[in-house]
């Protein structure tokens, strides 16, 4: 039957996922929304037939018409929601990051392992983006030989209020950490954090932009420019440099316009626009797998591994220089 979903957190992403589940995805409906801000939950619920508003995630997860959970609250609230979902053995799509640090991610890993089966798909939506999927298929085909380096640019028009140096890593660069692990099929072993003199447009207390370098256990080098107040738009680009060629994505997303002696195009202004197709594909894949009784996509292990790399990244920012990543042994459930 139709999957009844509780959406936890009805902010920017949560509200967009409610719209998506109601209007785009097939096979699901939003039966509950939860927000600590009661007014917010109520106003989102009011737009959806048969949807109840809650302020307590546990109460929503106990409702008869809730079969699955989409967590879109801020990262620090994910652990409690995940553990409650595990108590009820409910399937979960959890927005990235799984949790904000490695210790809490490890607690989730342990809890799911005790459950004995995978329950979580982590919201690393770039794995569902058409361009990233093309790059992945090309690298996997072996046509270009072994990937040697990966260059990444990650730019946001402006950062939200309260954005910190640590969030620059654990909220933003976490995507490149997952992309690196997924594209290359390798673990990240060390992170180096460097920074130029901050832009004059960087908000007080945030060193923006920054430059990170990852080393992998397959001997690849990966660099990431993270610039969250670039002002001009939202850009995510990647270039793989391989033994027999290079491949680049993220540059021709929009139409190219010739007009009055100039050529050009427009740049997406935010992730909701740039990754619309990826979010649609991600959520539909989750709903389809859940209805078949399966769990696919980025796992709790992937969420944990990214959190461990984030921890090294935040230490590298603070201490300067290169910090090695510490990972526990990968449990059989995730092999
Ligand atoms: P937001 O601040 O716009 O919304 C968060 C909402 O959660 C708010 O309405 C807040 O009141 C509510 N909330 C706070 N604590 C809660 C709790 N304990 N239980 C229930 N609700 C709670 O944030 P956002 O930008 O929508 O981000 C939400 C999540 O989505 C984060 O994990 C973030 O990293 C992720 N995100 C992912 C992408 C992506 O590209 N995949 C983009 C943006 C955000
Ligand atoms: C945000 O949380 C995201 O996940 C976006 O994809 C990213 O571009 C942005 O920097 C983050 O803050």
UniProtKB/TrEMBL annotation:
Entry EC no(s): 1.1.1.18
Gfo/Idh/MocA-like oxidoreductase C-terminal domain mapped to chain residues: 136-325
Signal sequence coordinates: none
InterPro entries the record matches: Gfo-Idh-MocA_inositol_DH, Gfo/Idh/MocA-like_OxRdtase_C, Gfo/Idh/MocA-like_OxRdtase_N, MI/DCI_dehydrogenase, NAD(P)-bd_dom_sf
Ranges where the Gfo/Idh/MocA-like oxidoreductase N-terminal domain occurs: 4-124
Catalytic activity: myo-inositol + NAD(+) = scyllo-inosose + NADH + H(+)
Keywords: NAD, Oxidoreductase
Keyword NAD: yes
First-level EC class: oxidoreductase
Quaternary structure, from the entry: Homotetramer.
Its job: Involved in the oxidation of myo-inositol (MI) to 2-keto-myo-inositol (2KMI or 2-inosose).
Similarity field: Belongs to the Gfo/Idh/MocA family.
PANTHER family xref list: INOSITOL 2-DEHYDROGENASE, PTHR43593
Protein name from the UniProt record: Inositol 2-dehydrogenase
UniProt source species: Streptomyces gibsoniae
């Amino acid at each position: 039957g139709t999957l009844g979903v509780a959406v936890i957190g009805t902010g920017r992403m949560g509200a967009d996922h409610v719209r998506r589940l109601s209007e785009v995805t097939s096979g699901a409906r939003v039966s509950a929304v939860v927000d600590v801000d009661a007014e917010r939950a109520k106003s989102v619920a009011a737009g959806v037939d048969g949807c109840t508003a809650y302020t307590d995630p546990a109460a929503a997860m106990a409702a008869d018409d809730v079969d699955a959970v989409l967590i879109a609250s801020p990262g620090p609230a994910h652990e409690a929601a995940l553990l409650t979902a595990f108590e009820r053995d409910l399937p979960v799509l959890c927005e990235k990051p799984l949790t904000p640090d490695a210790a809490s991610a490890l607690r989730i890993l342990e809890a799911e392992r005790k459950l004995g089966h995978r329950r979580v798909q982590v919201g690393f939506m770039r794995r569902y983006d058409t361009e990233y999927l093309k790059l992945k298929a090309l690298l996997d085909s072996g046509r270009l030989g072994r990937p040697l380096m990966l260059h990444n640019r990650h730019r946001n028009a402006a950062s939200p209020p309260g954005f910190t140096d640590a969030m620059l890593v654990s909220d933003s660069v976490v995507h490149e950490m997952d992309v690196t692990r997924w594209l290359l099929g390798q673990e990240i072993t060390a992170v180096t954090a460097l920074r130029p003199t901050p832009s004059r447009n960087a908000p007080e207390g945030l060193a923006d932009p920054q430059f990170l370098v990852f080393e992998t256990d397959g001997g690849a080098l990966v660099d990431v420019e993270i610039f969250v107040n670039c002002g001009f738009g939202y850009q995510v680009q990647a270039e793989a440099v391989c033994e027999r060629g290079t491949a680049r994505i993220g540059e021709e997303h929009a139409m190219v316009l010739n007009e009055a002696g100039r050529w050009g195009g427009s740049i997406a202004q935010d992730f909701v626009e740039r990754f619309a197709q990826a979010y649609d594909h991600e959520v539909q894949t989750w709903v389809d797998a859940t209805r078949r009784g399966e769990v696919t996509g980025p796992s709790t292990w992937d969420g944990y591994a990214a959190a461990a790399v984030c921890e090294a990244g935040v230490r590298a920012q603070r201490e300067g220089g290169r910090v090695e990543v510490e990972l526990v042994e990968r449990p059989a459930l995730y092999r």
